[in-house]
Amino acid sequence: MPELTSRLGLALPQGESGRDAALTIAPEDIRLVAERLLCQDWFLEDICGLDVAEGLAVLYHFAHWSRPGRVVLRVMLPRDNPECPSIEGIYPGAGWHERETRDFFGINFTGAANTMPLLLDESIERPPLLKPEQARISTNQLWPHGEWVGPAKGHALAEELMSICGTGEPGGQTGGETS
Q1: What's the CA gap between 82 and 84, in Å, rounded?
Q2: Strands (E) located in 26-65
Q3: Least confident range of 12-16, 63-67, 137-141
Q4: Is 20 within 8 Å of 5 (Cβ atoms)?
Q5: d(Cα 177, Cα 116) in Å, to the nearest integer?
Q6: Fewer Cβ atoms within 10 A, N terminus or C terminus of the chain?
Q7: Residue 12's pLDDT is what?
Q8: What beta strand segments (E) does the chain contain?
Q9: How far apart are CA 60 and CA 73, in angstroms?
C-alpha cells in the first residue's frame, strides 16, 4: 500500500520490511488508532513485546484483508510501570497476544478481560524475555527509517482514519469507503 506511505510522508526502503507504515504512538492512543484500522479492514496479525534501551515496546502488526502491505504500531512504555490499554474489545483475538506479551515481558494490558498467564506459570518472578541492561539496544538502531512519533491526534493517519470512519472528528464524512 504505497499510497498510504506516501500520504503519511514516511520513507521506508522498499522491499526491506514489507511494512508500509511504522508509527510510534502514545499508549493512550492505541485504542483510537486500532479502531480506525479496523474500520478500514486492517486485521491484527500479532502483538509482541521488545526490551530496548528506552524501555519496553509493544509492537502491533496489522495487515489488510484485500491489499498488500502492513502497518506497525509501536507503543513505548516505561520500564518501571509498563501498562498499555488492551485492544481486545476492538480485536477479540488480541487478548491472547496481550497475555503472551504479559507472560514474556511483564507488560500489563489495562482493561483486559482475562489477565491470567497464558503460557507461563504464575510463580515466575522475572519475565523471561527481559534483557540485561548491556544487551539492550536503542530504538534509533532498531528503527532508523523515518517515522512519525507522538500522540495520534493530529497525525495524518489518525486524521485520515477518523475521516473515513465517520466519527464526527476532522473530515466529517460518515462511513465512506477507503481509497
Answers
A1: 7
A2: 42-52, 55-64
A3: 12-16
A4: yes
A5: 39
A6: C
A7: 45
A8: 21-25, 42-52, 55-64, 70-77, 83-85, 108-110, 149-150
A9: 5
Say if CB 111 and CB 89 are below 8 A apart. yes
The 10s digit of each residue's pLDDT in 68-89 is 777 888 899 999 999 999 999 9
> Grid coordinates standing for 124?
515466575
Q: What separation, in Å, do the N-terminal and C-terminal C-alpha atoms of the chain show? A: 11
Task: Give the cell for residue 127.
Answer: 519475565
Q: Are 77 and 107 in contact (CB under 8 A)?
A: yes
Q: Nine-digit cell at 23? A: 508509527
Q: pLDDT tens across 1-23, in order?
A: 455 555 554 544 444 455 566 77
Give the dihedral of Cα atoms 10, 13, 16, 18; nearest 10 deg.
30
Over range 103-107, report the average pLDDT: 96
Could you tell me the pTM of the whole model? Answer: 0.76
Buried b (16+ CB within 10 A) or exposed e, 50-68: bbbeebbbbebbbbbeeee
Closest CA to 150 of 142, 141, 158: 158
| Cβ-Cβ contacts under 8 Å for 98 (sequence gap 6 or more) | 47, 86, 87, 88, 107, 109, 112
